[in-house]
Amino acid sequence: MRKVMTGNYASAWGARLSRAEVIAAYPITPQTSIVEKLADWVSTGEMKANFIPVESEHSAMAACIAAQAAGARTYTATSSHGLTLMHEVLMWASGARLPIVMTNVSRAMAPPWSVWVDHMDSVAQRDTGWMEFFCQSNQEVLDTIIMAYKVCESKGVMLPAMVIEDAFILSHTSEPVDLPDPAIVDDFLPSYAPELKLEVGKPMGFGSLVRPDQYMEFRYKAMLGMKDAHDRFLRVEQEFKQVFGREHGGLLERYRCDDAEFVLVAAGSVAATAKDAVDALRAKGFPVGLARIRSFRPFPHEEFKALGAKVAGLGVLDRSYTFGAAGAMYTEVKASVYSSSKRPVMKNYIAGLGGRDITPKILERIFEDLMLVTKRPEGNEVEWVEVAGLPRRWR
Amino acid sequence: MTKGYEELPITPVSDTPSTVNLTGNWRVIRPVVDKEKCKRCTICWKFCPDGAIILVDGVPEVDLKFCKGCGICAFECPAKCIVMVKEGLE
């Protein structure tokens, strides 16, 4: 059944169709309508779940951790400062190997106060042991939540995942979304059955103290879980395609990259706009392509290594900035490409912070700049796009 | 003795309570109760962070298997009937 809905309602439907049993959440702009919708469904009985209103995002995640440890499938959603408030407990969720799925509506960090799209919040949680899946459409948001539960709960993985939708551009924009038949989703995603869980008749402590002689072994096991998530994600998406007839491009979606000499890397909704820019430039005969990071964790390291060997110039558009370094996605891509047989010239574009529009025109300018990068590699390696006061014009 | 990573569970779980950890050997000073001066107010029992005070007919006995020697009982005792004594010098 096709319905027109916002990215936030697609998230809510993703949790509902995945039959999340416990939802604990705290409202924050622009995530609010996700939990509002879920609370509504729980109150009318349309969704069978326990909804726990809490006093903070830290408590929301703590409640999800406890419920998941007791064997329930849990869901929460947050954004920006809510996500960063969760930071400590995010590490607890992954270390305790609890496959919680959460939507993060990616929004800028303050100050300056901002409610608009920016990836700083998500990128700042890179090292928490959560999978991070960036989406470019409302359909992808819904599908990724269902797939995420399947990936997270698989025996070899057992780690949590964050499904990321861009603030307002996806969260509050309506698009047609195909709602899969609940019975078919139930077949695709069986109920959660962990090997270890808290039980009243069988008292057990989770996350107990271990001494230095065992700590590394547990971290090693979590590392293996994240490593397994890479191939598991690909397999789950292929299975999803067989059942539901669509896919979204693996961990790294490559658009017109096969014969491209210059490829731009981006994540989130801007990647969809960049595809239009690629089409416009291709029509003029320019050999450009777009590589979209869907999975920031696990990072598509091998995919980038292969891509890096094939192209002359590789640009990375970051919608956040790591002070004292560069865009985080840029440094990651660069690290992957280092071991390519042939390395491209690389350039980082910092753009669209705090919700600033990245228009097709700006993206065409970025591609034009990228196509010159091999000719003048002495230019700025990290370039801020469209900053008032800088001499360079990008429109 | 050390288990390889494959033999370990996915996350550290424990089915034994933490009372198997006898924390009394952390102690360098021990509380000594003057039972004559004790007013049986049970404040020491309420304040002990380790539950190491056991009341026998309302009078505190210190469970030395668990008492870490923090001295909170002696500090809180309004009758000043608990004194902390260096281990081995009693």
Question: Could you name the key traits of this structure?
Answer:
heterodimer; A: 395 residues; alpha/beta; Rossmann fold; 7-stranded mixed beta sheet; 6-stranded mixed beta sheet; 13 helices; globular; B: 90 residues; alpha+beta; Alpha-Beta Plaits; two-stranded antiparallel ribbon; 2 helices; 5 strands
Please give a structural write-up.
- The complex is a heterodimer of chains A (395) and B (90).
- In chain A, β2 (22-25), α2 and β3 (50-53) form a beta-alpha-beta unit.
- Chain A starts with a strand and ends in an 11-residue tail after the last strand.
- Chain A has 13 helices and 16 strands.
- In chain A, the strands form three sheets. In chain A, strands 3-2-4-5-7-6-13 form a seven-stranded mixed sheet, with helices on both faces.
- Chain A is 40% helix and 19% strand.
- Chain A is an alpha/beta fold.
- Chain A is globular and about 70 Å long.
- Chain A has two domains: 2-244, Rossmann fold (3-Layer(aba) Sandwich), CATH 3.40.50; 252-384, Rossmann fold (3-Layer(aba) Sandwich).
- In chain A, α1 crosses α2 (32-44), α1 runs parallel beside α7 (138-153) and α11 (301-310) crosses α12 (328-337).
- Chain A has helices at 7-17, 32-44, 57-69, 80-85, 87-95, 120-123, 138-153, 182-188, 212-244, 270-283, 301-310, 328-337, 360-371; strands at residues 2-6, 22-25, 50-53, 74-78, 101-106, 131-134, 161-166, 174-178, 205-206, 252-255, 262-266, 288-293, 295-297, 313-318, 345-350, 382-384.
- Chain B is an alpha+beta fold and 90 residues long.
- Chain B has one domain: Alpha-Beta Plaits, CATH 3.30.70.
- Helices cover 11% and strands 22% of the residues of chain B.
- Chain B is built from two helices and five strands; from the N terminus they run ββαββαβ.
- Chain B has helices spanning 43-47, 72-76, and strands at residues 13-14, 29-33, 53-56, 59-62, 82-86.
- In chain B, the strands form two sheets. A two-stranded antiparallel ribbon of chain B has the order 2-5.
- In chain B, a hairpin with a 2-residue loop joins β3 (53-56) and β4 (59-62).
- The longest helix of chain B has 5 residues, at 43-47.
- Chain B is elongated.
- The mean pLDDT of chain B is 93.
- Chains A and B meet through β9 and α9 of A and β1 of B.
